[in-house]
Design goal:
Elements lengths: L13 H11 L4 E7 L2 E6 H18 L6 E5 L4 H12 L3 E5 L5 H11 L1 E6 L2 H10 L8 E4 L13 E3 H14 L3 H8 L5 E6 L9 E5 H15 L6 E3 L7 H14 L2 E4 L6 H8 L3 E3 L2 H17 L2 H22 L6 H22 L6 E4 L6 H9 L4 E7 L4 E5 L12 E2 L4 E4 L4 E5 L6 E2 L3 H7 L6 E9 L5 E6 L4 E2 L5 E2 L1 H9 L4 E7 L6 E7 L1 H10 L7 H5 L2 H19 L9 E6 L19 H7 L1 H7 L5 E9 L5 E9 L1 E2 L7 H6 L1
Parallel strand pairs: 1-11, 3-4, 3-5, 5-6, 6-7, 10-11, 12-13, 13-14, 25-26
Antiparallel strand pairs: 1-2, 8-9, 9-19, 14-15, 15-16, 17-18, 18-20, 20-21, 22-23, 24-25, 26-29, 27-28
């Protein structure tokens, strides 16, 4: 086990850190990639050589200091190397979500003024070729995967290997050029531009300096004791700030190894093989994993099901206390140890969680029941609160002080205050430089003395932990004065494996209502077990038995809400199951799977109106985008269902 030792402070850029690791630990693994079923490992020394060749190759292509280099693709070593190579010569990497449609990609490429692009494969090349006329500034494209590219003869297309070969030739002629370029870099220089998810409009380009990213990453490493023997799995979009900090920034600071899965479809299988020690996932990933577990349990034999439910009850009673080092009776400890042998250990091994010593979830609130499920198994899962504008870290839950309904205490060197209107504000080393080409938005978000508006409503609990209620703009009141916190309600609904997504309504209305998306995998498994035929998502979503199952889940949530004086007014009175899954390609979700409330409210206004009428059903026609880009229309008559709820006493309304 290696001791934590942060790199010297004068190493203030990632290219400098890479040279440090190449000298300090040249033979230690830096990054892995699973290719054709085999894990390929690259050491720090090898990565330094790869980056040097690529950086010099980019110079020979014409990349200049200050140029923007778009990076598009799945998590691949060569795309991570491109980030460092661009930074080494003073250029700025601009990662783009790999599942962006051409129009979304065009906006970022044009707005960022990207002159160069490095992409993974033919799919991404085709998108760039489609938008190239709209983005005349894009002059050169480099691709990694040669498959399917044989007949592409454009002079501005270059294979990754060819660029590196040019770079090696360049280094022979100019042996000092790379080192001099790296030495010119400063911590105050722009390290990266990351575009926000755009829940309320066009994405904004967030400029982060090396100081922002490196100091924040180093504080996280220091706080949690990360070390070069750790290993993580890089599977979330490279364009997302979470991946940039956890898979890139902290890896460079601590010197640990990052592994790239074979594909997005094999992540869980690859994770079982790898057994990472450090893991990050947004709530939806933990929700999906739990859904898979519950489906498997329903398909298991009666004895295995009985054992699972019995020992999960033991885990709920004692598992979290044992994990936090709190006193637990001998009998319970023995039962938990037996559960570890029969249930928890095998389950964690199946999920690839056996070696995890630190796991984070963030991005949006996680349901308390989901959070407790993993911690009860002995997984050291913590919540953190952050944003792109903070270089991720605003709060972290300290060891021994982990609660499901808080996001922890301020991260190292971060200050937090609650504005008069209840909005959370922060400042610290990770505060972004500015929004690219958007001084108005910068001034609205960041005060002259460095405080940043988060847009989230929250408060500090008595123990000093921050509680986030919801997005400040989403928190409202129902007409009788009761509090309306839609995200809190939605997260409680999504705890049930049958519910994949939910959207709650209620601000300035008489009561709360909801749209629900069923989980096709979970409900499909139920349908197969119960011989319920269906031919499509739409048909299954309209099945009366499925609607009754969803109604039962909502009534359970209403019971929980009724017991909370602050949130009793959020009980759902009516709901409908949507005829289609909410989809980023249809503009209903962001690329990070966040609900775009304003868009959904506008698109489905007839359904919302029906929920607040006496109607028993509602007709809707919806345009959808298929995977191949074609458009189509889905028509449906949706049943509107009334739900039982507990009346809210007037005293509770006043208290809230």
């Amino acid at each position: 086990m290696s001791d934590l030792r942060l790199p010297p402070a004068e190493l203030d850029t990632f290219p400098k850190l890479l040279e440090f690791h190449a000298a300090e630990r040249p033979g230690k693994p830096a990054i892995r990639e699973k290719d054709f079923g085999i894990w390929q490992t690259h050491t720090w020394g090898q990565v330094a050589e790869e980056v040097r060749s690529l950086a010099s190759g980019l110079l020979s292509l014409g990349v200049q200091r200050g140029d923007k280099v778009a990076i598009v693709g799945d998590n691949r070593p060569r795309l991570y190397w491109t980030m460092t190579a661009a930074q080494a010569i003073g250029a700025v990497p601009v990662p783009i979500y790999q599942d962006s449609v051409a129009d979304e990609m065009a906006y970022v490429v044009e707005h960022a003024e990207a002159r160069f692009a490095v992409v993974e494969d033919q799919e991404q090349v085709d998108k760039l070729l489609e938008i190239r006329e709209r983005c005349p500034g894009l002059t050169q494209i480099v691709y990694d995967e040669a498959r399917g590219m044989r007949h592409y003869t454009q002079a501005f297309l270059h294979h990754f290997d060819a660029v590196q070969a040019e770079g090696r030739d360049y280094n022979e002629i100019h042996p000092d050029a790379y080192g001099e370029a790296v030495a010119r870099g400063r911590g105050s220089d722009t390290a990266i531009i990351l575009y926000t998810s755009g829940t309320t409009g066009k994405p904004k380009g967030v400029i982060l300096s090396f100081d922002n990213v490196m100091k924040t990453a180093a504080n996280g490493v220091k706080l949690e004791g990360l070390r070069d023997s750790d290993e993580s799995l890089a599977y979330l979009p490279m364009a997302w700030v979470g991946d940039h900090i956890f898979s890139f920034g902290q890896s460079y600071v601590a010197g640990f190894c990052v592994a790239c899965p074979e594909s997005s479809a094999t992540v869980m299988h690859d994770m079982r093989e790898l057994g990472p020690t450090y893991f990050f996932a947004p709530p939806r990933i933990f929700e999906n994993i739990l859904t898979t577990v519950m489906i498997r349990m329903e398909d298991a034999g009666w004895l295995k099901r009985k054992l699972f439910h019995y020992f999960m009850a033991v885990a709920r009673r004692s598992g979290i206390k044992i994990l936090d080092g709190k006193p637990v009776g001998l009998g319970e400890r023995l039962l938990y140890a037996l559960g570890q042998l029969l249930v928890y250990g095998p389950l964690k091994n199946t999920l690839g969680f056996t070696r995890i010593r630190l796991a984070y979830t963030a991005g949006e609130a996680i349901g308390p029941d989901i959070f407790d499920f993993y911690r009860s198994l002995g997984v050291n899962l913590k919540q953190l609160y952050g944003s792109t504008e903070a270089s991720v870290f605003i709060t972290i839950q300290p060891d021994g002080e982990i609660e499901p309904d808080t996001v922890g205490k301020p991260a190292l060197d971060v200050e937090i205050k609650i504005a008069d209107n209840g909005e959370v504000m922060f400042r610290g080393p990770g505060v972004f430089v500015e929004y690219y080409k958007n001084p108005e938005a910068t001034a609205e978000t960041k005060t002259p003395d460095g405080w940043v508006h988060t847009g989230d409503a929250g408060f500090f609990a008595d123990n000093g932990h921050l509680k986030i209620i919801d997005r400040a703009k989403d928190v409202g009141r129902v007409n009788d004065g009761g509090l309306f916190a839609p995200k809190y309600v939605e997260n409680k609904l999504k705890f049930f494996p049958d519910i994949k997504e939910a959207v709650a309504f209620g601000h300035e209305r008489d009561h709360c209502t909801a749209f629900v998306n069923i989980d096709l995998v979970a409900v499909g498994s139920w349908a197969e077990r119960n011989n319920v035929p269906y031919a499509s998502y739409q048909e299954l979503a309209a099945n009366p038995q499925v609607i009754e199952i969803v109604k039962g889940h909502i009534e359970k949530v209403n019971g929980d809400l009724a017991a909370d004086p602050q949130l009793a007014s959020c009980q759902i009175r009516r709901f409908l199951v949507l005829h289609k899954e909410l989809d980023a390609d249809d503009g209903e979700l962001t690329r990070t799977r966040k609900v775009r409330r304003g868009f959904i409210a506008e698109r489905y206004q007839p359904l919302i109106d029906a929920l607040y009428s006496e109607a028993r059903s509602a007709y809707i026609e919806t345009e959808v985008t298929f995977e191949d880009g074609r458009k189509g229309t889905i028509k449906a008559d949706l049943e509107i269902v009334d739900v039982d709820f507990e009346p809210v006493p007037a005293a509770m309304k006043k208290a809230s």
